Amino acid sequence: YLGTCEHRLRAHQAGTDYWDKASDFAVSGRKFFITKAGRMGLGPAEMRPGDVVCVLFGSPTPFLLRRTAVIGEFKLVGECYVHGLMNGEAFEIRPDGIVPIALV
Question: How distant, in Å, are the alpha carbons of 13, 45, 51, 58, 76 from that of 3?
């Protein structure tokens, strides 16, 4: 029985090592954020307060945009993960789904 327990412990530790490495890779160069609506997410390290989460038609991933000095123009900061917005939920929040923006 002791040999079985040791085998299971080694297998568990190997699995834990795998998930530790996988999670480190997934969040490397990313920062945690919370939106004004209270949604949690991960975004590029370059993000900063005031950046805007945007879901583009046809994309499975939300993006972070940054306003420029020109009204209505935005710079693409990068993709992000936002809990609750990854499977089309954004279009349930705003059914028309259309907000015109200009990327620079």
Answer: 15, 46, 54, 53, 55
pTM for the model stands at 0.66
Q: What stretch of H or E contains 73? A: strand 73-79
Over its C-alpha atoms, the chain yields an Rg (Å, rounded) of 20
Continuous segment of H or E residues that includes residue 6:
helix 2-27
DSSP per residue, 76-91? EEEE-EETT-SSSTHH
What DSSP line would sit under 18-69, residue for residue? Answer: HHHHHHHHHHTTEEEEE-TT--EEEEETT--TT-EEE--TT-SS-EEEEE-S
Closest CA to 80 of 26, 4, 10: 26
Structure tokens at 35: 């939106």
Average pLDDT value for the chain: 77
Under 8 Å between Cβ of 58 and 28: no
User: Rounded to whole angstroms, how far apart are CA atoms 68 and 11?
Assistant: 52
